[in-house]
Amino acid sequence: MPGDYQAIVIGAGHNGLTCACYLARAGLKVLVLERYETYGGMTVSEELAAPGFLSDVHASGYLVAKLTPAPDELGLARHGLELITPDPNWAQVFPDGRAFIIGRDVEETARSMAQFSRADAEAWRGLYRRYLAAKPDIVAGMTSTPPPLATEFASQDAVDQYRFQFQSARSWVEETFQSPEMRYFFASCALHGALAPDDALGANFAWLFAAAVQDVGVSIIKGGMHNVSRALAEDLASHGGEIRVNSGVKSIAVEKGRAISVRLDDGEVIALDGVLASNVDPRHLALDLLGEAQIGESVAGKIKRYDWGQSFFGIYLALDGPAPYRAGAAADQTGYVHIGGPSLDDLAETFAQARAGLLPHRPMIGAINEAGLDPSRAPSGKALMKFIVHFVPYRVTGDASGRIRGTHWDDIKNAYADAMIDMLSEHFLPGLRDRIVARSVQSPLDYERRIISAVHGTHQHGAVLPYQMGAMRPIPEFGSYRSPVANLYLCGAGSHPGSGVTMAPGRNAAKVICGDLGLAFAA
After folding, report:
1. Band of the pLDDT at 148, cuts 50, 70, 90?
2. CATH assignment of 7-49+225-306+461-517, among 3.50.50.60, 2.120.10.30, 1.20.1180.10, 3.40.910.10
């Protein structure tokens, strides 16, 4: 009934749920509307490859959220969230059989790095000390409204900050590290922001990512990534909030500059006398739910040019037993493995090929040994692995290797998966192909079909670019969690600080909303 809810959140991904939790704790009656049959968005787990084999469909690693206060503030551990944080924590495996690992202690990491270059090991010690000194400011920057550019670059060392923030990964690693292997590894960390070695912003992102892995470690969620959203949903329910699934929002009605109702796909209209927060991707919000008539031609034009970034390709394998790495047991024990290298130019070539519409010949592949770390994910004695190709084209024009014919993902995805499995079996995981009992292959089109916000098979709600970050993310008119509609806010990865399981956009948006409403932010 009209007036039953003081806040409505569109989209029950982890950021939408985080925002809803804080609004409910501030005393508002909250409703979360989710178009799919389950909540969680990109923090869902499903039996993709075969029955009994539980894979994280999108997000797998739980990293940056551990730097933010949200998990403790919302008591997610009390709601059943359990983390598995292996040691060693991260690995880079190379075609020659060698591996580099990040241990839970920086000296363990330095020892591993020293096999490639003692100078690089010492450089990492210095970079990590620099991170620890800057950590309070880094966390504060993530968990607050981004400042205007004029403020951000007004400090005494603004010139050096500006250079590093916009420096490419290639420029940074070549001036910082000596060995080609460490240059490859650190540049590959920028791929988690979909940043090529020669893209602006790569240096800063790579440093922060690797340092965060060293600091808090990448965890796997016991029982599947869906337990993140399940814990959030339980906290929301404990404070009177509600979630309605199978309730997609079709449009938002606006009068006199304020949102007054939402219309669902089935025609139901829910009146709004309060605030509306959106966790859907910014373009869908602006053009589909609001419409050009509401936001104006100029703003619509800007959002139409919004850049989505690079597309993912996923292979989920049910195995009859573990497939050990050629590089040794340390790689088998880690939570996440980068597969590729050692040439920095290989990374650059992958992006050049993908951006030209070609299936990359030697992409970097991220591997998660899901059942090896969490035996509950697979039947006893079996194994489950997930491989994510960074990156592939959304629209295919050809194959860089010249072996695969066809250009539509539905026709070629299995052939490309075969090529990637052959490469993995030959160079990195001997015998992998022979252990496969079932598999699921997810192309960019498949990811997009599964969830509307995975536009072009991406997970970021928009690329990380100089003009799509901070106060300008997604565009200035929708920046800092606000929109041109007075009571409509953004709380998803299309806002600062962006993608990843951080809970920061949801928390930050709730803090802004509470401030606008004169409510105490219940941290």
Report:
1. confident
2. 3.50.50.60
